[in-house]
User: Which sequence fits this backbone?
């Protein structure tokens, strides 16, 4: 999760310590991160909000158990990524693209047009990856999750994480490297 | 660092920056998201309420049907087992042994070659029990139970409870017979015969007495294949065992 939304870890010695006072506090602090992670994984804002709402509802339902966990963020991240992958697989089974890359909204940022074009290319490249490959990149380069933990989240071997990452980076290399070394 | 790793790191760094920018490109509408979560939660609660209502209706219908079915049995005494108002305790054949169950004055009977052992109380309902067994590989046994605070108040509830043991549904439970028992006019009991699955198929004969708000029970349990052969033994045990 982004650093601006992290909180100090509660003291290990305190058995009653909790990361969040209650679900409302969790929602206020973590919901934006949950939505952003879903957006990066799904590359579709509407679907991302639907999946995020589904996960947050589940968290609320299981709040007593989640709040007692030593790493609730990791648990929520795992739930979210797996829900996203399930969503993508369902969409693929229905032969539906989760989003038409050509219709992605232009990012409303004070940006150079070249950068926007690169980002659009990046989206297209990400959409060309499998759900697991995309999850590996998002978790590794956005969430900064170690490969071992990614392997646990996705239920695959660590070596598979590395091969997914290598394959996906190779696909993105053409888009992201502008100095001609691709 | 090898050139292979160098390009991976460079692409990774580029990707990291791009993902960070993409993530914050559009703000998250928290109130809208909260509303969406609330809608989902409301839908879940509504689904739960609908399912709960449906289950309640089904249970009510089942109870009503069971009650309607039970009334003629009670009123007409069809299939009533009548046991003579004999002295209590009832005489037993010399080869049988009488035991004090210690369960509210209930006398027990141990058939020849069987043993009688106290077993620990089970669950929260059973306050005490004594078990006699043939110690054969087939596992014929009699259990006496005494419940000082019965959890069942009506016949329907009692019949429903027969298919469970300590709250767990008995696998393959099938009620074969159910009828009241009269002892002259002084006492009334209820007999039920049922079988349940497993290997081998087991059959049970249960007699329950309601006396002063307490339930005294005897269970005669044996594999189905021994049932006919054990019929004389079962009859003696059932007739000689009763709360006195």
Assistant:
């Amino acid at each position: 999760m982004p650093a601006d939304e992290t909180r100090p870890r509660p003291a290990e010695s305190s058995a009653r310590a909790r990361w969040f006072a209650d679900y409302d506090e969790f929602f206020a602090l973590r919901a934006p991160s949950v939505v952003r992670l879903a957006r990066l994984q799904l590359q579709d804002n509407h679907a991302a909000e639907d999946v995020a709402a589904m996960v947050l509802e589940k968290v609320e339902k299981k709040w007593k158990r989640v709040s007692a966990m030593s790493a609730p963020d990791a648990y929520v991240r795992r739930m979210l990524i797996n829900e996203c992958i399930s969503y993508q697989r369902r969409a693929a089974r229905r032969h539906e693209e989760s989003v038409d890359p050509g219709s992605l909204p232009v990012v409303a940022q004070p940006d150079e047009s070249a950068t926007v074009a690169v980002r659009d290319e990046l989206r297209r490249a990400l959409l060309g990856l499998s759900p697991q490959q995309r999850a590996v990149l998002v978790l590794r380069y956005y969430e900064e999750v170690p490969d071992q933990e990614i392997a646990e989240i996705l239920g695959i071997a660590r070596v598979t994480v590395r091969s997914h990452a290598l394959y996906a980076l190779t696909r993105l290399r053409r888009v992201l490297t502008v100095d001609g070394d691709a | 660092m090898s050139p292979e790793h160098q390009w991976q790191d460079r692409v990774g760094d580029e990707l990291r920056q791009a993902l960070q920018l993409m993530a914050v490109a559009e703000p998250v509408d928290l109130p809208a998201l909260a509303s969406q979560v609330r809608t989902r939660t409301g839908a879940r609660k509504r689904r739960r309420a609908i399912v709960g209502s449906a289950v309640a209706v089904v249970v009510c219908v089942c109870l009503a049907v069971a009650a309607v079915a039970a009334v003629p049995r009670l009123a007409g005494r069809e299939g009533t087992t009548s046991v003579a108002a004999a002295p209590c305790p009832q005489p037993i054949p010399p080869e049988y042994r009488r035991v004090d169950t210690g369960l509210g004055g209930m006398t027990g009977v141990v058939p020849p070659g069987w043993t009688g052992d106290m077993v620990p109380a089970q669950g929260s309902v059973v306050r005490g029990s004594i078990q006699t067994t043939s110690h054969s590989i087939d596992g014929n046994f009699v259990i006496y139970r005494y419940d000082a605070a019965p959890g069942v108040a009506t016949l329907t509830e009692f019949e429903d409870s027969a298919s469970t043991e300590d709250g767990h549904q008995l696998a393959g439970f099938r009620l074969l017979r159910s009828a009241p028992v009269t002892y002259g006019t002084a006492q009334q009991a209820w007999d039920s015969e049922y079988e349940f699955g497993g290997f081998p198929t087991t059959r049970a004969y249960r007699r329950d007495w309601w006396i002063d708000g307490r339930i005294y029970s005897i269970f005669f349990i044996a594999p189905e294949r021994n049932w006919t052969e054990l019929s004389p033994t079962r009859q003696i045990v059932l007739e000689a065992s009763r709360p006195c």
Observations:
- The CA atoms of residues 65 and 156 of chain B lie 10 Å apart.
- Chain B has four helices and 13 strands.
- Helices of chain B lie at 3-24, 30-76, 155-161, 231-240.
- The radius of gyration of chain B is 31 Å.
